[in-house]
Amino acid sequence: MHDLLFYFDMAGVFVFAISGALAAVRKGMDLFGIIVLALMPAVGGGTIRDLVLDQPVFWIVSTHSIWVALIAAGLTFLFARHLESRMRWLIWADAAGLALFCVVGAEKALVVSGSPMVAIMLGVTTGVAGGVIRDVICNEIPLVMRVDEYFYATAAFFGAGVYCLMDYLGYAGPIALWAAIATAFTTRAMAILKGWRLPKALR
């Protein structure tokens, strides 16, 4: 279980770092800018989660996440010109990172706090906050706030919620992790492809 969580965490760091690096490439930033922007979504949400939980910040305890993010930034710098649509890749890399991080964040918060509500809230924070930081630095409206980017935080909520529900029902472990990640990613993917969105209040 611990090894699986580690690999999910590193996978989340990798794809979120790619999303940050692609955003930097779209803005015409140099290598340093690409590295900085790759790190923001890769470690931003998890940093906030650990600070709220009063836990040692994960990338200070172990620098694996930093190295993975740097590798992702380097690969994006080298091969970005081969990507036909950087925005398309950015959206899907972000969706994968969101699914992985919201579940990893919920698992850690549940272990530390013992509260499903806290776990869901910090799972969403882990999945969403880093992307918000990335978009703010790029002087763009964050994906979570855009009208055309449907079911963003909602997908993270569903993923974290499914993990906590399965844990409550006694299915904690790899099955819960895979089911929750699949739920978050499928929700986000279907929203992207089908244009799903939450209803707005009538004015």
Distance between the termini: 49 Å
Topology as a string of helices (H) and strands (E) = HHHHHHHH
Share of residues in helices: over 70%
Q: How big is the Rg?
A: 16 Å
Q: DSSP helix count?
A: 8
Number of domains: 1
Largest sheet, described in full?
Answer: none
Structural class: mainly alpha
Strand content: under 5%
Question: pLDDT under 50 segments (min length 5)?
Answer: none
Principal-axes geometry comes out as: globular
For the secondary structure, the number of strands is 0
Explain the layout of strands and helices.
Elements: H1 2-26, H2 31-52, H3 58-61, H4 64-79, H5 86-113, H6 116-137, H7 153-168, H8 174-194
Concise structural overview:
Helices cover 76% and strands 0% of the residues. It has 203 residues and is mainly α.
Structural description of this entry:
The chain has 203 residues and is an all-alpha fold. The protein has one domain (2-194). It has helices at 2-26, 31-52, 58-61, 64-79, 86-113, 116-137, 153-168, 174-194. α1 (2-26) runs parallel beside α6 (116-137), α2 (31-52) runs antiparallel to α6 (116-137) and α7 runs antiparallel to α8.
Keywords:
203 residues, mainly alpha, 8 helices
